[in-house]
Amino acid sequence: MARSAVAARILVTACLLLRPALADQHEGLYIGKINTYAHQVSGHVYAIDEYTILIKNFFYDGLGQDAFFWAGSSVRPSNVGFIVPDEEGKTNKLQPYTDKDIYLQLPNRRKITSIRWLAIWNLREHANYGDIFFPEGFEPPSPRRISELSRRGAGVRSGTVVIVDSKTIQIPEFYFNGNVSDTYFWVGLGPQPNSAGQKIPNEKGYLESLGRYEEKTIELTLPGKMTVFDIDWLSVWNKETNENYGSVIIPHGQDIPPSKLGSLKHESRLPNCEQLHSTLQLRWEIQGRSISLELIGQIEEDEYIAFGISGAPNASKMVGADVAVCYLDGHYANAVDYNISDRFPCSNVLGRYRGVCPDLKVEGKESYQILTFTRKDGVTSFIFRRTLLNPDDDGDQIFNPDGDTYLVWAIGKYNEFKEPSFHHTFPKGTLKINFGRKEAEDNCFEFTTGQTRGRPAPWPPFRIRDKAVDTFIARIGPAAGWKGYMGITGHSGPGESWYMNGVLVPEIHVQRGRTYTFRVEGGNNPHNARYYHPLYITDSRAGGYARLTEQERQSVKVYAGIQFDRRGRPQPSAAGRLCAWVYNTSEPRQADEFATFPKFRNTLRLQCDDGQPAVLSWSPNESTPDVVYYQSYTTPYVGWKIVVVDEIVTGSGAVSHIHVSSASVVLAVLLPSLSLLLRINLE
Q1: Residues 186 and 329 in one domain
Q2: Which of 73, 404, 436, 596 could form a disulfide with 432 if both were Cys (CB 3.0 to 4.6 A apart)?
Q3: Strand-pair partners of 329
Q4: Cβ–Cβ contacts within 10 Å for residue 9, how many?
Q5: In sequence order, what are the beta bridge partners of 218?
Q6: What is the pTM of this model?
């Protein structure tokens, strides 16, 4: 078995050596060299796809008075034509170019086949500085439909697979039952799928074993410098059993559009590397009793990377984990030691901090030392160090130099307090690494550049604006990530948000001089910090009054929900029983899969403790600002806006917003157990 595997790898290597480097050569369909007439115009022209032209090594001295990219369908270049926008999409007169590669998109979805020539043309003087003619009847590169995935097991099937471009493969209507572990998208060389291939990231960049797919259209991006010219097949492959559950042969040819994506290699002195995600790498080196770690990620400047040792000895588990949270702070970088005792922001629970807390808050020590950092071309690197063993800190786990260490990681946005908020990218399975392996291994590929981050479009913001509505049912539920709280408010939340009358953080409209009632069911047990959310109304966009210092409290106002004793000590007054919307399935954070909030909400179930809601009455008056916020007393970024007006005008406003009618409120109050009947109407 071992000999056959070695032989297969030798064969694959030989194929790679013999195969022409098409990936490096493929720039699209070559049209020809620009004919030069004036101003040193030169370059080589390629058709990228039906609408796009590439000019490589384009040169123009810029001395023409009124020159543009100009295209037309006449026999030869003339004033009968149209301006082609430059590589930035602008139609200004051309500036100097020095051997620059530029992409030109024909305007108004015109196709290359509709023109006969492209020129550098002076409109004022009717002068042609250079041109290229497109051959009659030529076909530009276009996405190629090949065949369906073969059906060999695990419920794998699909529609017709499409090679979108040299780095992108689309699989429409993909099915996979997800019942088998250690299964991946797998590519390689040879006449049929084999164990000498390699796994590639799934459509979301993850490298863990595939989950369930049911009639889902996905696009796979080949990693690093890999293109379709480097592979012969794509398979759904079980690495443990070497089974092919379904595959397709990948054809080659100049008619495949070249990808506009690039690749970026990060240089590092640390010899070991593992790819945790298509956008995240881990490098390390053990030096005596210490380990140097490097996290390299394609993150935004306001995002963090967390990495550390799992809270479980044989699985990847966040609760109980010991992690370093790395983030940028202006011209500096930090690697802060955190202890994760539960899935909520660090909170003082009856005199003891629990949740996602810095070690210094839980009587631990700062074990990580930041050494250096870089940020270039959207890639951020943090290099830091700690000891393998740390017996002086009970919260610190051990980096095992003699075997596997189970790990966790996450990427998310940090809030205005420079604290990690709920993460949007995290491991979907178990991750373990042998940090003390005898031979250094670099199992990372280059980062892909030019991709737009695949954040889902948020649901339209929600609005409760009705004269007949004066009662609001305040419950807790999933924040729903980019589709929900983050997309609606622009803030990064802790994972739980207020649901008002069954709707995720709606903008509530109230009228001055009227009294409004909030029936609060956000939890009244301070021992359960994740679900202890007394409601209050404030002018703070963040909330979380309990976490503010005395000085910070001076800069915010409280309008309802908090009482103060004679010494000025705060006490929340609207803490009712817990009623929470919770996931019905074992796979949380699934909001991205739903086009609308009602469809997402219908997958949740309402789970209520015994007890009664707290009742908060509030009457906004002339001194109340035009905008205030309903918030959680214990946790920041859980609530959203209350718009205070002199008179509510029902039915006006943007039609893209969702309006919740008084009938919806009646259902939410009278039929909480039948909450799926909640009616949400488009205004």
Answers
A1: no
A2: 404
A3: 332
A4: 13
A5: 171
A6: 0.82
